[in-house]
């Protein structure tokens, strides 16, 4: 293919760090309190079918769910602190841990999609049931399930070749212990994506 002199190639350093997910919520104007923590830029999932995308009711997006340590706001929680604890133990560190955060949605289950930059070819869509034997799923239980999904995704991504290197998941790159769960957002019908930050301290 001949080079098109009208369209200058875009370098990876010129990509915006804007996240359509984090833009869906009110990001803290001051950003994260930690200088080591930054947003993971993600694109919202769009179905492959143009018909589904065109007929989707975009104004029915449900309110996001936030995840924070007790006493903090919009700073997120390290996923490693979630995946290594039981639900009751998570309740001792997570703000609003016992809230039935999805009860008002009327949904019985959601599909969690991971759209990691450079790994969007890795198709990760997993169903999360919203009703536990004890009743509607709580914020703590939901946080645990999301963290477990990301742990498995990271394991899978390590064996894949990324299409971009800035957010590569590998030894010396981003690892699971760097991931911070900030929120969960409804992006399309019953599809939700996690708002994630990276903390490489």
Could you explain how this protein is built, in words?
The protein is of the alpha+beta class and 201 residues long. It has a domain at 60-199. The chain has four helices and nine strands; from the N terminus they run βαββααββββαββ. It has helices spanning 50-55, 79-83, 87-90, 139-157, and strands spanning 37-39, 65-66, 77-78, 109-114, 124-129, 131-132, 135-136, 179-188, 191-199. Strands 1, 2, 3, 4, 5, 8 and 9 form a seven-stranded mixed beta sheet that branches. Strand 6 (131-132) and strand 7 form a beta hairpin. The radius of gyration is 18 Å and the shape is globular. The N and C termini lie far apart (44 Å). 30% of the residues are buried. Mean pLDDT is 84; it is low at 1-20 and 22-29.
């Amino acid at each position: 293919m001949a080079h098109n002199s009208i369209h200058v190639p875009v370098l990876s350093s010129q990509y915006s760090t804007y996240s359509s997910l984090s833009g869906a919520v009110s990001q803290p104007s001051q950003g994260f309190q930690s200088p080591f923590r930054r947003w993971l830029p993600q694109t919202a999932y769009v179905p492959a079918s143009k018909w589904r995308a065109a007929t989707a009711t975009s104004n029915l997006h449900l309110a996001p769910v936030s995840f924070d340590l007790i006493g903090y706001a919009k700073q997120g929680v390290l996923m490693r602190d979630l995946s290594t604890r039981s639900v009751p133990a998570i309740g001792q560190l997570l703000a609003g841990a016992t809230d039935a955060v999805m009860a008002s949605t009327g949904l019985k289950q959601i599909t969690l999609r991971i759209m990691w930059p450079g790994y969007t070819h890795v198709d990760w869509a997993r169903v999360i049931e919203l009703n536990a034997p004890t009743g509607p799923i709580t914020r703590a239980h939901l946080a645990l399930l999301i963290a477990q999904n990301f742990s498995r995704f990271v394991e899978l991504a390590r064996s894949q070749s990324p299409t971009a290197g800035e957010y590569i998941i590998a030894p010396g790159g981003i690892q699971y212990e760097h991931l911070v769960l900030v929120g969960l957002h409804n992006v399309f019908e019953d599809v939700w994506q996690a708002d994630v930050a990276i903390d490489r301290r």
